[in-house]
Design brief:
Blueprint lengths: L12 H17 L2 H4 L4 H19 L7 H7 L5 H17 L15 H5 L5 H12 L24 E3 L1 H6 L7 H11 L4 E4 L2 E2 L7 E6 L2 H9 L6 H16 L3 E6 L7 H13 L13 H22 L4 H4 L15 H12 L5 H6 L17 H7 L4 H5 L1
Parallel strand pairs: 1-5, 2-4, 4-5
Antiparallel strand pairs: 2-3
Length: about 375
């Protein structure tokens, strides 16, 4: 990474971060569930490598607090990343049955009561309890079908209205309803949770405002909820085996279509019920999203309670993504240093023994970023301009 940057030239920080995440952080991640129980002294050696890489990305001077350029680059501390990875692994294990060979490490043992170790099997229960996920139901990692998948029919998904939305105005509920009535005359129209009964029909048209769900049905592939996709495929297989045709179509939401409005109404009513009739387990992706948010909250608390990097904290209080950039290397380096409050001004040079007093040579006050930008009379002409 040092070969790619200088103080005034070099690759942009987005490219440098990609190099860090692809070639350096990926090595840290591998096996972190195992070596995460190592001593703090050993783990800090990895932290120092992360700090060096991110310091090169930002162009920060050596006196810059590590917490500051972690926030600037949107990169969480390694200890929190290891926490997230081990929690994700727990989630993967819970999605398997009891025959999985690694399930044993989650079971109780007398050693856990006698010893206080930092290894995965000992620690993960407390972590998950803190996250409030102890009693949560997780769907199967690999859902198995009772019917050969080759027997499934390809789902018929009509995305005509979704494609029209990009070029035409389809906010008129009359036009949408006319399209459904004319093209699917005689079909039972099902709007998510609400349906209209009929004595005879040619089939069923399921109207949904979830384009992502329809694309999953059309492509027979779902990353977040493969278990629900399989369940829908089994249901449609049984319906079609009885000679009925099931078609899925997209419709715009909240434009006054009666069936859709009823579905929204009943869904809101059901969300207030204390009793749950059908227990739908969470998918791994949903649990990992919750874990990610919980870890981010811990990072946020660390940033709020940290005693260093307070100048950047006054500018950016929330942790998260890397700051957007658009300038060249030299300009971004200057901006980052101003945001950090650590530059080559006299106050910082004094800390590393390269200035006698740390005061401004012009007015005698401590030469900080705030002083130069707002108060120093040496630059008053520039401020007026």
């Amino acid at each position: 990474m040092r070969c790619l940057v200088g103080s005034e030239w070099g690759a942009e920080r987005k490219a440098l971060k990609s190099i860090y995440t692809g070639l350096i952080r990926s090595v840290f991640d591998y096996g972190s569930i195992v070596f995460g129980s190592a001593s703090e002294t050993l783990l800090k050696k990895l932290d120092s490598i992360q700090y060096q890489a991110l310091r090169l990305c930002t162009g920060a001077v050596r006196t810059t607090p590590t917490s500051a350029f972690l926030i600037e680059m949107g990169e969480m501390p390694l200890n929190l990343r290891r926490l997230q990875l081990k929690s994700n692994y727990w989630c993967n294990l819970k999605g398997h049955d009891g025959n999985h060979p690694c399930q044993d490490i989650l079971k109780s043992s007398w050693e856990k009561e006698k010893k206080k170790l930092n290894s995965f099997g000992w620690e993960i229960e407390n972590v998950i309890k803190d996250f409030g996920l102890s009693d949560i139901n997780i769907s199967q990692t690999v859902p198995l079908s009772t019917v050969y998948p080759s027997l499934f029919h390809n789902n018929v998904v009509d995305l005509t209205l979704l494609e029209k939305r990009k070029g035409e105005n389809i906010s008129d509920p009359y036009l949408v309803q006319s399209y459904l009535d004319s093209k699917y005359y005689g079909y039972v129209q099902v709007f998510t949770d609400a349906s209209k009964n009929s004595n005879s029909s040619n089939g069923v048209i399921v109207c949904s405002d979830s384009s992502s769900s329809l694309y999953s049905l059309k492509n027979n592939h779902a990353i977040s909820r493969p278990d629900l996709l399989l369940e829908i495929q089994l249901i449609t297989y049984r319906i079609q085996a009885m000679g009925l045709l099931v078609i899925f179509t997209w419709i715009p939401s909240h434009i006054g279509i009666r069936g859709n409005e009823l579905a929204d109404k009943y869904a809101k009513q059901a969300s207030k019920y204390s009793d749950i009739d059908i227990l739908v387990p969470f998918s791994r992706e949903e649990i990992k999203s919750i874990i990610k948010q919980k870890v981010k909250e811990r990072w946020q608390r660390q940033w709020e309670e940290d005693r260093t990097g307070r100048w950047l904290y006054s500018i950016q209080r929330k942790v998260g993504a890397m700051r957007r950039t658009g300038q060249n290397r030299k300009e971004e380096t200057v901006i980052s240093r101003l945001r950090f409050g650590h530059t080559r001004l006299n106050s910082n040079l004094f800390k590393i023994g390269k200035h006698r007093t740390g005061s401004c040579d012009f007015c005698g006050q401590e030469e900080t970023v705030k002083h130069v930008l707002l108060f120093c009379t040496k630059y008053s002409d520039y401020l007026l301009k």
